[in-house]
Amino acid sequence: MKYSVLLVVLLLVALTARAQRSPQVHDDGTVTFSFTAPQAEEVLLRGSFIPRKTFKTPAGVFGKDGSYKMQRQGDTWTYTTKPLTSEMYTYYFEVDEQPTLDPLNADTVRDVTTMLNYFFIPGIPGNLYMDQQVAHGRLQYVWYPSSFPGLPRRRMAIYTPPSYDPGRRYPVLYLLHGSGGDETAWPTYGRAAQIMDNMIAQKRCRPMIVVMPNGIADRAAAPGIDPYNHEPASAKNTESMMGKIERAFIPEVVGYVENHYKVDTTKAGRAIAGLSLGGLHTLYISANNPEKFDYVGLFSAQTTNAMTNDRIKTLQRVATNYGKVSSIISIIKGREEEGNATMKGIREGDLQIYADIDQKLKTQFSPAPRLYYIAVGRDDFVKKLNDDLREKLTLAHYPFVYHETDGGHTWENWRKYLVDFLPRLFK
Amino acid sequence: MKYSVLLVVLLLVALTARAQRSPQVHDDGTVTFSFTAPQAEEVLLRGSFIPRKTFKTPAGVFGKDGSYKMQRQGDTWTYTTKPLTSEMYTYYFEVDEQPTLDPLNADTVRDVTTMLNYFFIPGIPGNLYMDQQVAHGRLQYVWYPSSFPGLPRRRMAIYTPPSYDPGRRYPVLYLLHGSGGDETAWPTYGRAAQIMDNMIAQKRCRPMIVVMPNGIADRAAAPGIDPYNHEPASAKNTESMMGKIERAFIPEVVGYVENHYKVDTTKAGRAIAGLSLGGLHTLYISANNPEKFDYVGLFSAQTTNAMTNDRIKTLQRVATNYGKVSSIISIIKGREEEGNATMKGIREGDLQIYADIDQKLKTQFSPAPRLYYIAVGRDDFVKKLNDDLREKLTLAHYPFVYHETDGGHTWENWRKYLVDFLPRLFK
After folding, report:
1. Which of A61, B58, B70, B117 could covalently link to B43 via disulfide, CB atoms 3.0 to 4.6 Å apart?
2. Calpha distance B258→B269 (Å, rounded)
3. How far is CA A75 from each of CA A38, A71, A79, B400, rounded to the nearest angstrom?
């Protein structure tokens, strides 16, 4: 009888877990959040559906999630929103100023170093981000050889479409993440596999391979699975703006994909797009390799407003200071080697990738790629940089597509940009 | 100059992030945790390295993480452990009774519905769980057709070894998770890809394919990526003990793998192992298919102590009650269909998989498989069930290997069991 007791206990656990559910998405698009915290004095709900508070710094305008006060009902705190438009939203609770996840919701995603809960409001575009009852492609995590000092292998995610036929040649989209992201960013927060499955099922884009490499120069892979950095990840991503990622991209990332998968190796069969830092990488990778990509997408790109040789001088100066500071810190910490490696990396001339951008763009646009796509939100702190880039392209009579949206530097926008970008590819 | 200001800000962020690090693993195996919480009155550290508190219920002995009080130093709370033995450990903070993750550590893993931070103490066995500078296999997430009502496709993870050669036939290990897990459990918390990479590199096991399917009967995939269950996952896994998983295993999971990968399809080329609920599945899948698996591993298996036809009667009775309760609840909730589906599922006769186990074991051991492996911890609440199973096997003179360890029903043990199991396969 012991066993039946166990089953009954499991049953009760199951029923209890079913009764308490958070969040509850109602048919009218309102959402009820519940959180049990008898000792708490104040519980806030913070989420991507709450208007953000913005603040200005010398570096630009930044935002912070807004909050709603949850109402206590006995031991449980609840909040029901107004109807929300269709989306994938993230949220968390703040209990007496302490951020915490929703223990009733196993759906979590990582943003840089922060875990967030998420939920969907069905509809458009939310349905594209949810797994649907359609044919699914495969998501693979693959290691490839790399020339990066100390990182002989790096990791990328590769999506192959449903009914993948290794005998056929597929076009390839290279899809790059932002600062603080890694090769898991587009497959998790970006819902890239779901978007691809759903867009292909709806015949809104061509079946294609999507390659999502790690774009952090001093990391080989996402936190916890990097063979060369066993310490928890930090926000130290400045090296990713020093040209290394761009310079290695064609020989190492594209080279690996084209050697290991049966893909279209013509310019018309290659697309590249990236968000934020990945937009910076996309701009320079495509400009330095004008014969490679017929489709280029900049999503809230961290472009620069000094697209001249002045830029390389600025970077070199900052880089030199960075190297020095880094060296001092490293020596204090007994890590002289690491400091020197940083300086050595910069001395190797990776920054040449940023030189002569005007001339490089001229070559890239002679003839113009089939698509040069720029998307940015009106409230994005990189909006001005993208305005400057558009002005430069317009003055030079280079054709491009511009997609301006509400909102800022958010995954809500980047997912929408991908959905808008995909149908324009490989036509 | 705006850009250089931004870079300097990023630099400061990077240096700050580097200075505050948690946890800090020191060379002597002690670990320092830091957490900033100026408003908190008490911060506890809870983790898998702290002795657990156990409590008894009618269903058995269960445990809860122990805790250490952290010490306040200004706004920051810290705790330094005694030297820890090599392992992958999980932890979290409890701030005035509120569980929270370490904001300085991006390494997180999900246990059922709870997120935990983790870190490694290098050495043996920890080094096997960390990504090392060795050749890496690939981890793929694959959807396969399924006969489960309402779930026409289910998801599995497949590890292919380094230098995978599709022209060669590899042996296959089917590796099953426990109740509350899913197809991501072994690849994340179980560190299966790292263990395989490292064991293969050290020539401690043969290169093999490892297949890790989802074993929850009413779920197609992990939370957030299940096309048929868009609501957050609950703990409702009792259906996974009703025979469905076992009955569909050979035609659907093994069938898919053997049709889509070039694998050894002899009995000597197939192994199956599972932890807890996955051990229950392993026992019955292998017993019902005596010609299929030459290597069988039960890791802390949820076996039963009524391995007779009494068991099926007990299950049937509980199942019937379950169906009734479920129906009542479902009707209250306006989900009559779901309640009926549960009862229908049980009526379909999946439970026959559990019938006549003595006779099935007799067939399975005539002749005996090359390896029948049972591992369990001395403090595990399923220890007694495994004692009973061993007694049964011993009385019948069926050969098996028994591996008893310290500890309980933990991932620390299941990873060790995998490491102990792998060298015994495919020899």
Report:
1. B70
2. 11
3. 4, 10, 14, 52
Query: A236 and B318: CB-CB below 8 Å?
Result: no
Q: Say whether A139 and B138 touch across the interface (CB within 8 A).
A: no
ipTM (interface predicted TM): 0.80
Give the chain B residue whose CA is nearest to the CA of A92: B100
- From chain A residues 95-114, the ones with a CB under 8 A of any chain B CB are 95-101, 103-110, 112-114
Q: Return d(Cα A305, Cα B307) in angstroms, integer.
A: 74
Name A313's Cβ contacts closer than 8 Å, sequence gap at least 6.
Answer: none
State the pTM of this model.
Answer: 0.85
How far apart are the CA of B92 and the nearest CA of chain A, in angstroms? Answer: 11
Strand A401-405 and strand B24-25: the pairing is unpaired
Distances (CA, A) of B181 to A193, A341, B157, B213: 22, 42, 13, 10
Instruction: Give the separation between CA A234 and CA A144, rounded to whole angstroms.
Output: 23
| Nearest residue to A17 (alpha-carbon basis) of B100, B178, B237, B58 | B237
Residue B369 near residue B425, CB atoms below 8 Å:
no
Residue with tokens 């200071």: A321
Rounded to a whole number of angstroms, the distance from the CA of B2 to the nearest CA of chain A is: 7
Residues B242-275 pLDDT 10s:
788 999 999 999 999 999 999 999 999 999 999 9
Predicted confidence (pLDDT) per residue in A133-151, tens digit: 999 999 999 999 999 988 9
Chain B neighbors of A106, CB-CB under 8 A: 110, 112-113, 223-224, 232-233
Residue among B112, B169, B161 at smallest CA distance from B139: B161
Q: Which of B108, B331, B357 to mutate to test the interface with A (most CBs of A within 10 A)?
A: B108
The sign of the torsion formed by the CA atoms of A325, A326, A332, A336 equals: negative
